[in-house]
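#lab-general

N.A. 3:47 PM
ok so I finally got the sequence cleaned up, no stray characters, all 379 residues accounted for. can someone with queue access submit it? mine expired

B.Y. 3:52 PM
send it over

N.A. 3:53 PM
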Amino acid sequence: MTSMIGLTPIHGSYCPDDCQFLLTPIRPQFLSIEEKERRIQTGQAHYSEMIHREAAPSARYLSLFDALSDRYAQRLAQEVCSLAGRLLADIGHGQAPIGLVSLARAGTPVGALLRRALVGQGQQPCEHYSISIVRDRGIDTQALDYLLDTVGLAPERLVFIDAWTAKGVITRELRASLARYNDERKAAGKSPVPVRLAVISDIGGTADYSATFDDYAIPSGVLNATVSGLVSRSVVNEQVPAGAFHGCVIHDDLAEHDRSNAFLDQISTHFTDLDSSLSRATATAERARQRQSMLTMLDTLARDYQVSDINHIKPGIAEATRVMLRRVPALLLVRDKRHPDVEHLLLLAGEKAVAVVERPDMPFHACSIIKTLTAEARP
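B.Y. 4:20 PM
back already:
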């Protein structure tokens, strides 16, 4: 366990009650998306060590985000309340706050909405912090130490929040990280942290709690910093001081495009009573079906498109969107080009001259395949 000296939460453009990020702002050293991709694929750097400058969303793209928000505001609000109801039923009402620990950055807007629902509809004290988790590097244990030892949250009242699952990579990273972390806590005579992951959409069938198993365009999944408090994804490199929280960049240059608070306000106006009616047995059975369906489809796509690195296949609307915005895509697969949930993806594909293929057999609406660099592109 580590010292808490010099660790200060930030809240980006959010109200502090809605979210506190346990991240360390750093001065950005931006790379192009193409250079970042080259370094990742050649093994020169881990993806978490680099960051590119996020472009302002175009007026057309923002209009699509607004249309998705209007279309799904009521649905997402009901799903947030359903998820909040089940968490409250399991964790229990109490004077001690429930600690929502969202996984930065996709989980952050969902965590902020859940906090509002638990406090407003559930009359339950609740605090929301957003912390970093990085594939192959684990969760930020400095941040966990801060929550438990400095803030004083009760470990048994913590729950981890993300927006969706896909292949289950981050779920596995979370479970492995917490297993190591809890071993240390047990050795120190401290209570372990429960491994509880709650998401809105569990298309990968790997979460502990979910509101739906559908792949749909959760509006916050189609933007980056401008719906996440102007905070970047987390960065872990030499710019982050030893003993500090994982790093981030504050995208103040995108402030005029920020939708972070407006999005929370729009969704929370549709909140209903908290609902915990979905039975555990029904959820468990559906989760197993989702997991098998995902694995089968991933094998099919890897074979059909000769993809040797499973990390280059990104299933689901939100993951496909992240590839189009942050990586170098080779191909966009959609189940139905006419479906409104993929309109923003088709716009991005057109802008980047990425081929689009319809795959009606996919159990999800979209999938992006990352371009594999040719030998000539490698140093």
